[in-house]
Amino acid sequence: MEIYxxxxxxxxxxxxxxxxxxxxxTVFGQTEVPIINSRIDGIVTDSTTRQPITGVVLRIKGVTHxxxxxxDGRFSxxxxxxxxxxxxxxxxxxxxxxxxxTGSPVNIQLSDKVSQLNDVVIVGYxxxxxxxxxxxxxxxxxxxxxxxxxxxxxxxxxxAPGVQVTxxxxxxxxxxxxxxxxxxxxTGGNEPLYVIDGFPVYNDNTTISSSAxxxxxxxxxxxxxxxxxxxxxxxxxxxxxAIYGSRGANGVIIITTKKGKRGTNDVAFQTYYGLQxxxxxxxxxxxxxxxxxxxxxxxxxxxxxxxxxxxxxAFGKGTNWQDAAFRTAPVExxxxxxxxxxxxxxxxxxxxYFNQEGILLNTxxxxxxxxxxxxxxxxKNFHVGINATTSYSTSQGAASNIxxxxxxxxxxxxxxxxxxxxxxxxxxxxxxxxxxxxxxxSNPIQDLLSxxxxxxxxxxxGNLFAEYTLAPGLKAKVSLGADLINSKSNFYAPxxxxxxYSTLGYATVGAASSNSWLDENTLTYSKTINNDHELNIxxxxxxxxxxxxxxxxxxxxxxxxxxxxxxxxxxxQILTPTxxxxxxxxxxxxxxxxxxxxxxxxxxxxxxxxxxxxxxxGNKWGYFPSAGFSWNAGEEDFIKSxxxxxxxxxRLSAGETGNQEIGEYxxxxxxxxxxxxxxxxxxxxxxxxxLANADLKWEKxxxxxxxxxxxxxxxxxxxxxxxxxxxxxxxxxxxxxPLSSGYSLSLQNIGSVENKGIEIGINTENINxxxxxxxxxxxxSENRNKVLSLxxxxxxxxxxIPGTTLGVLQPEIIKxxxxxxxxxxxxxxxxxxxxxxxxxxxxxxxxxxxxxxxxRYQDTNNDGVITTADKTNLGSVxxxxxxxxxxxxxxxxxxxxxxxxxxxxxxxxxxxxxQLEITNLSQNAWGDVANRWTPTNPSNTIPRASNNPVAQxxxxxxxxxxxxxxKNLVLGYTFTNAVLTKIHAKQIRLYVSAQNLxxxxxxxxxxxxxxxxxxxxxxQGIDYGAYPNYKTYLLxxxxxx
Amino acid sequence: xxxxxxxIITASILTACNKLAENPTSxxxxxxxxxxxxxxxxxxxxxxSELISDGTEQPLYGREINFLADMxxxxxxxxxxxxxxxxxxxxxxxxxxxxxxxxxxxxxxYTGISRANAAIDxxxxxxxxxxxxSRLVRESKFLRALFYFNLVRFYxxxxxxxxxxxxxxxxxxxxxxxxxxxxxxxxxxxxxTDAENLPSSYSGADIGRATGGAAKSLLVKVYLTQQxxxxxxxxxxEVINGxxxxxxxxxxxxxxxPATKNGVEHIFSAQISxxxxxxxxxxxxxxxxxxxxxxxxxxxxADSSVYKQFSNTDTRKAxxxxxxxxxxxxxxxxxxxxxxxxxxxxxxxxxxxxQSNINFPILRYADVLLMYAEALxxxxxxxAAAYAALNQVRVRANTxxxxxxxxxxxxxxxxxxxxRREFVQEAQRWFDLVRTKQLVQxxxxxxxxxNVSTKNYLFAIPASEISINPDLTQNPxxxx
Lengths: 1041, 480
Hints:
The structure holds 2 protein chains of 2 kinds. Chain A is mainly beta. The longest helix of chain A is centred in the N-terminal third of the chain and has 25 residues, at 2-26. Among the domains of chain A are: 2-110, Immunoglobulin-like, CATH 2.60.40.1120; 120-257, Ferric Hydroxamate Uptake Protein, Chain A, domain 1 (Beta Complex). Chain B is mainly α. Helices cover 44% and strands 7% of the residues of chain B. Chain B has 18 helices and 7 strands. Chain B has helices spanning 2-15, 37-52, 60-69, 85-91, 100-122, 130-155, 181-195, 212-225, 229-241, 284-288, 305-308, 317-320, 365-380, 384-396, 408-422, 429-435, 439-443, 463-468, and strands at residues 28-29, 76-78, 266-270, 299-301, 321-326, 333-341, 360-364.
C-alpha cells in the first residue's frame, strides 16, 4: 500500500511534468518574426585585468531582451529597439553598470564589486535583491569554495560570521559538525539543514550507514562533489529560515550548483595533485624510557624488574610506531566539465574523480561523480530544468576496536600509540612481531594493513522543475526531487589481528538504503507599482518523505582468513543479524510576503506550517512565523550627502523556527527484544522500553536579530554587523522519571537553552592601483550558549558518553546555567611530595592507599575529604570567539590568497593523553611520563609510576583548544591572451596551494580541532584517539577551451 | 490552458500528501502487544532477561548485585583497576546517596518488576492454554518477588508498584512513595505462595525457568530473614522432602562448571552462556580475569581473612580462588602474586575475555540446608537434624563433620562461618551479615573498611530518585 501510494504520487508528478513539456509544442509553438531596428557590437572586459569576461548579461533597460558575451568577451545585440538606448550590463561578482549606447562598437569595462548590494541572493524558495533583504544571510566567498576538501561542510570553516565548523577527524571523507549561531538542542540534532538545488537534506551520517563497520562515520555530504558548487548562502536569522519551519532552527545552508553560461560552449579540465603529511606526531616514550618505566611500575608493587640495566641500555630509541603507521599520502582530483548555453537553454555536465589516500596506512576515500544540470525556456513563459548528480564513493576507514573483544584500547590510533617501543615492527624474517605485552597479541601495523573496514555509497540526488508564468508577475513552479542512497559496509578482522584474535576472525557486512522524495509546488507573484512599491508574494505546498532500511549480518571463527567478509557462511559462529526500518513524512504549507517601498523600507513576513510524522498524535502540526524589517538608510538624502558613508542599512527580525531532528517513533510506546538463555539456547523476549507521549511536539527557537550593513568610502570598506538572541524552549529532552516506574527516561518538551552573540564581517579593498589589488576579509563570531532549564526539578545530568572508560569518567555535564559541552571533574593541585602532605591534605583514596607521588586534588567544598562532590566546572568546549582573516592579492596574472582561521577560548578533553598517562605493564606512555615523580625528581605535574592507576576526570586533561591556523595559502597564475590563443584555450590557470601549513596552538594532542564522537551533541570536544589532522601541498591546473 | 495547469498543480498537491501517522515497521508498539500466547511467553522471557542483561550497565546478577552484597563486606574489595569511584566508595563504605551503583541496582530491580507487572496484568486477558497461562503468571510472580526481596532488604521501605503507568502524559503520576517493609514482605509472600504451584521441574527448552521448588526455597529465605523459624523449618522441609530431587554435587567445583549447569544442586540460577549467548560481555570475566599482562582484576579479596578461612583440604578453596591461569590460546601458564576470585572465571573462555558460560547461582541446595540448620538451631538448639544438614555441606567440601555437642551459640558461629566459606561472591554475605546483625563488627575488621557503621544496615535511597520525587524519604544517616 505504502509503495503504491508513493509510486502513484511519483507517477502523477512525472505525468504532470510530461504534460507541461507537451503543452508548448502544441500551443505555444508559434514564434513572432522579429523586427530588426538596430545592431551594436562590443566587448566587455575587466577594469583591472583587462581580460575579456565571458557570460556577461547585457539587457536594454526597460526591455526583457538580453544577450550574453561569448568566450572572447564579445557580444552583438540585434534588436527591435532603436538607438540610442541604455544597456544594463551585469555579471556576478561585478558592479552592475548602465551604459548609454549610441552605436557600435561599445567597449565596456566592469569593475569588481566590493559591495554586493545589487546582487541577487538566493533565499529559501526563491531569490531576492540583496538590498531588499531583511534577514541575516551570508554568502560564502569564492576563495573558500576553491579549497580542497572531500565535502562541502569543510569549506564553510571561517567562511561566514556565525558559522562554526569543527572537523571530527582527519580521516578522508570524515564529517564535520557545523553550528550556526550555536547549538540549540541537547538531545536533538544541531546540524543545519542543507538545501542542495532546492532539495532539503539533513546531514545525518547514520542514514548512509548500516553500522556494520567500525570507526568514524562516512560523511553523507562527501558524496557530493564540492567543485560543482557555484554558491553557498548561509541563512541565519528567523526572517531567513522560518520559511523552512521545523527544520530552520539550526540555520539553513543553501547550495546552488554550477549552471552553464549563455552564449558559450566551454570544455573545462581541472586537476590537482597533492601530498598530505601528518601535522605533528605526539610525544611518546622511547624504548629505553619505557623499559625504565616498566621496571618502576613493577617496583611500585614490590615485583622484580623485567629488564636489566644492560638490556635497557641496548634498547636505544626503539621503534617509533607513529613513523611506521603514518605516511605521506597523495590526494588527486580530476574533473571534466562541459558547460554552456544559448538564449534558451543552459547546460553543465561534469564528471569528477577524487581520490584521497589517508595519512594512516590503508585508509582512503574515493569518489566518482557525474552531474547534469540543464534548463531551458520552452517558451517565453515556460521554463523547465533538472539538476542532478550521481556518485559512487568508497572509503576504507581506521577501525575502532570492537568493544567486547578488546580489553583497553578504543581504536587503532591508541593501538599504535600504546604498542611498546621495545618491539620491532617486523622480525629478521620479515614477519610482523606480535605484541606479547598485550592480552590479545597483535601488531598494529599488521592490523592496519589487514583489517577491512570499508563503506561504499551510491547516491543520486536530483531535482526536476517546471516553471510557468501564468500572468505577468505570476509564476507557478512544480518541482520533484529524489535523494536515493544505497550503501554497503564490509568489515573483516583476520584471526591474527587484535580485533579478530579472540574471535578467530570476525566479519560483518551491512547494507542500508535511504530514499527521500520531495514534491514542491509554489506560486510567486511580483508586482511593482509606480516604481515605488515592490511586492513579492510566495505561497506553496511541499511534502517530503524518507524511508530507510538497513541490515547487518556477521559471523566469526573462520577456518581461513582468505574469504574475508565475502563468505559469512564460512564462519563457524553466527552473530545475531539485525535489520531495521524507519520512515518519516513532512507536509508543509509555506508563504512569504516581501514588500519594499522605494527600496528604502523593506518588510518580510513569512510563515510555514509543518506537519511531521515524528511527533505525538496530538501535536503533529507546528506553525513558524517570522517578520523582518530593513531600512536602507544609505538611500536617504541626509546620508547620501555624507561623504564617507556610501551605504547604510539597518535590519531587524524576529521569528520562530523549529527542530524535528529527534529521530522516529519517539512518541510511541515501543517494545524491544530482551533475550534469555533457557537450556543454553537463546530465547527472544520483548518488553516495553518507552512510555508513550502523545503530546510530544516541536522544539521551538525564538530568535531576534538586529544588524547593520555599512559601506564606507565608495564601498571600499564594508561592515556587516549582527547581534542576536535565540531562546529554544520545549526542548525535547529525555527527562529522568522515577525508576520505580520501570522506566528511566521519558521524552518530554521540557527545558530550554539560549544562544546569544554578535557577528562581524568586514571586507575592505585596501589597494587597487596599477593592476595591483589587495583585499581583506575578516570574519568574527562570538556566541554564548547556556542551558536555562532542564525541567522536572533537574539541575544537571551527565550525558552518556560512548565507551566504557569514558562512560564511567563522565567527563561532560549538562547543567543549568552552564553551556553545553561543559567538562566536569576534579581540579588537580599538584603531586603529594611527602607523607606529611598526605597527612595534611584530603586525599581521594584512603590515606593508607595514598603514597608520595600520587595526584592531589582540590577539596573544592572544603569538607576535608575528596568525593565526587568536589568535581567542578573545568571549562567548556564553546569557544569565546572564532574568526578568520583572508587576504587576497592580485597583480597582472598572479593571485595570492592567504587564509588564516582560528578559534579562541574553547577547551578540549585530551582523553588520548589521559589513556597514555595511565602507566601499566602493557602499554607505552605519553612522553611527559619520562618526567614522572620520583623521590629524586619531585615533579608537581606527573604522578609516580604505579600499576594501572585509576583514571580520574581532572583539570589536568582539559586543555586549551585555542588555535590559529594558516588554513589555506594559494598562489596562482592565469596565463595571458597571447599564450591562450596559441593553444586555442579560453583560460589557463596554474596554482600551488598549501593547507594547514602552520597551526599555532598550545594543545598537546594531534590537533585542537577534533571531536571523537562526531555529531554527538553531548560528547563534543573529546579527543580519544581521533584520526590526526594533516598538511596538504597541492599543484593544480585549470584549463578551459 | 491556465486552467489545465492549475488543475495539474492541484492534482499534484492532492496526490502528494504524505500520511503523518507513524507506523513503525521495526518496532512493536503497546497497542499491538500482549495479544497471543507467544506474546505472553516473550513478555515473561524479558523479565528473566533483566537478571543477566542491561542495555547500558553491567547485569544485575553476576555483577551489580555483588557490588552491594559482596563489595561492601569483609569478602571483597575494589582492586586498583576498578575505574568507577562509586564502586570504590562502596568498597570503602564511604558511599553516599549519589552513588551511581545504588541507582543502577534500584533501576534493575524495578525494571524487572515493571516487566513482571505487565505480564501479570496482561497475560490473564489472553485466551490460550490455561495451564501454560497460569504457569507464565506464576513465573512472573516468582521473579517479581525476587526483585522486591532484593529491594526491601537493600533499601528497607520501598515504593510498592504492582501496575504499570499507561503513558507519560502525566509525569507526576509516576511518583510513588515508600511502602512499609511489612507490606512489601506480605506482597512477596503472596506472590511466592502462588508461585509454589509452579512445576517441580522442566525439560528441554524450558530448563532454567522458575520451579515450585525455587518458590519454596525463596520463601525459606524470606521467612529466615523475618526470623520466622517455624515457617523456615517447615518450608525448608517441603523443599528437602518435596518432589524436586535436590542434592549436593559430590564435587563442589560442579556448582560452577558449565557442563553441570542446572544440575541437582541448582534450584534457581541466572542463566549465562557465551558464544553469541548472553554471557557475551556480561563482564563477569572482565572483572575477575586478571589477563595475561600482570594487571590486577577489578575485584580482589578484601583482606587475607577471606582465603585464610579455608583449610588447605577444603575443596572450595581452589574453586573460589586462583593463583595461576593457563592461556588456552598459547598454553602458557601465568602465575599471580596473590589470590584472585575464580568462581566465575570460565577457563574454557579465557581467550575471549568478557565471555562466560558459568551460571550465577541465586538459590542452591547447600543454601537451603544451611538455612534449615540455622532455623532449627535458633528454634530448638543444635539438634541432630541441624547437625546433619550442616555436615552434608561440610563433608562435601572435604572438611569433615562439625565437632559434636556444641552450644547453641557455638553452633550458630560455626554455621555463620560455614556460610561465609560456602558462598564467597554469591551475593549472600551482606544479607547474612545484616540478618545476623554482624555487619559492623565483621566489616570493621578490614583495614580499608573501618567507616562501616549502623547506618549501613540499609543502603541509601538513590538521591536521583528523591530529586524527582521529593516526597520520598531518605534512610537514617544519609543525606541527599
